[in-house]
Write a structure and sequence with these properties.
- The complex is a heterodimer.
- By secondary structure, chain A is mainly α.
- Chain A has two domains: 30 residues; 65 residues, no CATH class.
- Helix content of chain A is 20%, strand content 5%.
- In chain A, strands 1-2 form a two-stranded antiparallel sheet.
- The C terminus of chain A is likely disordered.
- Chain B is mainly α.
- Chain B has one domain.
- In chain B, helix 1 runs antiparallel to helix 2, helix 2 packs antiparallel against helix 3 and helix 3 packs antiparallel against helix 5.
- The longest helix of chain B is centred in the N-terminal third of the chain and has 28 residues.
- Chain B is globular.
- About 3% of the residues of chain B have low confidence.
- The chains are: A mainly alpha, B mainly alpha.
- At the A-B interface, helix 1 of A face helix 1 and helix 2 of B.
């Protein structure tokens, strides 16, 4: 078994070809997305222009249901929160967010987090 | 996006090359090739290809801002153990050929070089763990096939050498540094 210059060149060429082929295969496939890497968390800044301070009407409900909560109002502060599914679950009042009249700045960045102490 | 794809592709090429390095090295050490010198040269060629692929992998990850890999990550500074494993593999992959140069220059003895060279197995295992736990493609069939095939190849080579080497274990083992 000898390792001639031809063998070396062929091996190196095969490696380069593999690299190029794999790169384009990955890039063009559906798995070429960045799904496997944790994306940086981005919190959407609160929309201040669409709310009136003190009215508690601007809290974001991840369920998309603006009437979640037994009172049908997002400004209620009885210590319950929306889990994003539209259901109302009780939360420990000591762990709830600041109650508020300042709910114009309250943003729920994810599911399960207390939205605004609404019920 | 191309940088990200290139980073992933180069990781596969690097791992494949190092699997070849380990398997070929086992065959050389088990005296499967006579004369040994050309086989050792091929072993080193595969190592060089793996090193280039690692360089591409690291460079593209550093340039791709989305991957969050920094220079500090190369020194194990990061929250993820799997990335630290990659950093360990990176430095081991640099250290192994360096030890070969030191042996050629007579800075270290053959015995010391041989002990250092055992780290080649560790390097390969660390690379495997890094790829398995940190790789984006770990769940894909082709990645699973590569990992399983590589483990099977290296495992077979190790078993072959273990059983083939028993009656012939003698101190007069071929030194790649001498074979050059």
């Amino acid at each position: 078994m000898t390792t001639s210059l031809r063998t070396r060149i062929a091996t190196a060429a095969a490696a380069v070809a593999s690299l190029v082929a794999l790169t384009f295969a990955i890039d063009s496939s559906a798995s070429g997305s960045r799904g496997g890497v944790a994306a940086p968390t981005t919190v959407v800044p609160p929309a201040t222009s669409s709310s009136t301070p003190g009215d508690g009407s601007s809290s974001i409900d991840p369920s998309g249901d603006s009437s979640s909560g037994s009172s049908g109002s997002s400004s209620d502060q009885s210590g319950s929160s929306s889990d994003g599914s539209g259901d109302v679950v009780p939360v420990d009042p000591s762990q709830s967010q600041q109650p508020s009249q300042d709910q114009g700045s309250s943003v729920d960045p994810g599911f399960g987090a207390p939205s605004s102490g609404t019920s | 996006m191309l940088l990200w794809s290139l980073a992933r592709a180069s990781a596969f090429v690097a791992f494949g090359a190092y699997t070849g390095v380990v398997v070929w090295g086992i065959l050389v050490a088990g005296k499967a090739f006579r004369p040994a010198a050309p086989a050792v040269a091929f072993h080193r060629l595969l190592g060089s290809i793996g090193m280039v692929a690692i360089a591409v992998h690291v460079t593209t990850l550093l340039l791709d801002s989305y991957a969050h890999i920094t220079i500090g990550s190369l020194f194990g500074l990061g929250p993820h153990l799997s990335v630290t494993l990659g950093a360990i593999a990176f430095w081991l992959a640099i250290g192994l050929p360096l030890s070969f140069r030191l042996r050629q220059a007579k800075f270290i003895s053959y015995r010391v070089w041989r002990k250092i060279h055992w780290a080649g197995y560790v390097t390969w295992v660390v690379m495997l763990l890094h790829g398995f736990f940190n790789g984006t493609d770990t769940g894909s069939p082709y990645a699973a096939a590569l990992y399983a095939g590589s483990v099977a190849l290296v495992g077979t080579a190790v078993l072959w050498r273990h059983f083939d080497d028993e009656p012939a274990s003698s101190p007069a083992r071929t030194s790649p540094a001498r074979a050059e």
